[in-house]
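We include the pair:
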Amino acid sequence: MKNILSVTLTVIALILVFSSSFAYADVKDGFYMSKINDEIFARIKGKSFKDNCTLPREDLRYLHVLHKDLEGNTLEGEMICNVYIAYDVLDILMKLYEAGYPIERMRLVDEYDAVDETSMRDNNSSSFNFRFITHTTRISKHGLGLAVDINTLYNPYVKITADGKTILEPATAGAYIDRTKDFPYKIDSDDLCYKLFTEHGFEWGGNWKTVKDYQHFEVPDNVVSILYPDNK
């Protein structure tokens, strides 16, 4: 399987055509993807798929997966992401499950009325949630379904402002700012989740310089500009 950085324009087009030609792909027991059928769309319409959503419904895929919690229990999970990364994400989540990697919760963000803060406080892992970048007409990578957040409470977004204030998302994640500490669900550069996502060509928010987003894996800007050249 080619990772997302190594795919040329021609192969990108082929992947999109190939992926969109299947309504359902049974990969392994408990792991499959499907188009956003009417039943699934009814669950997300007006929530993650907001009334002003400009991303075509056909660009999204529904993933059904299995995952383990800290106690080793097998749980069912759901995620919606862009068709372009769907096979990559399904492969990553399958390998995490097979390795017993703990993911506490994986529900559609719509179960939290598409409110990111509420979803993150519940340590929920998710991808698609349509929104524009503040003060722009540019769709965010989560709005395109081209970013994935994993174990969000324990791996927060952290920004220190010029006047020394800390912006923290979720706001309840103060105990997990210090990344030198050991705690459950922590993602770092030695972590299997980090290794699998980056092997597939995703960038990790924990490597950013001015802010840190330890939960966040995204498709690089240069690839997004090829897939959505009008998203400026």
